[in-house]
Amino acid sequence: MLNLDKIDCLLLSELQINARVANAELARRLNLSPPAVHARVRRLEEQELIRGYVALLDRERLGFDMLCFIQITLQLHQPDQVAHFRTTIQQTPEVLECHHVTGEYDYLLKVAVRNRQELEQVVMHKLTPIPGVARIHTSLVFSEIKTSTALPLAGSV
Questions:
Q1: One domain, residues 103 and 133
Q2: pLDDT digits over 114-123, tens only?
């Protein structure tokens, strides 16, 4: 971790809650001047601790009612097959996240689709044909108990 002081951690925590908060409001909350807050934010962006700003969308209200976790095992771990698999996954818009993991499976995918037909399309026509895929295991999410993008920084310093 880079040299972050308590104010940096508080600033990052505030931005995780609402990245659109006005600079003047951030300054008030952190008891700093607006130019000091602006300089800190710019430094954190330059250090790539802040990678970007996004709008978090309501998946279900937008019609993506099925959230799934798909575990994938590759037959062989040859560099060209692994590279092809990763490239294909990066180009698959339904895949929200992909993690290379330890254990029984090689990859864990978080996938959002509108319905079971879309899920079938993803599994049968996008994932299964990838060279080297040996096994696919799909789990459907009944309900999300906790969803967060915020890192627990407040107590870091």
A1: yes
A2: 999 999 999 9
